[in-house]
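hey m, so remember when u said the tokens were messed up on ur end? i reran from scratch. heres the input so u can diff it against urs
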Amino acid sequence: PHTPLIKFPDRKSGPRPKIQESLQASVPSLHASKAQESAGGRSPGLQNISPVSRVPGTPDTSELVRTLPQKYRRKQMSDEEIEYIQVSFLL
């Protein structure tokens, strides 16, 4: 018989976390951050956030394309191929 190598917890019988408790644990309260703003300017948590947040370790798409070996890159299309695709799409 088949014996599974990976066991997953049973979701139906396990205790379900309460949504409000998990949200309060992960997000600081709105009232506390407003009190800090009025007392000393911006809240310290918002000062270090950059407008574009990137996940560390994942390269940008253009950076990835530049470092990709030629055999894995997309083949360049001629103008004739591009025109044929665009015209056939309209028909």
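this time it looks ok to me. Helices lie at 19-26, 30-40, 44-47, 61-67, 79-90. if urs says something different then somethings off w ur setup not the seq
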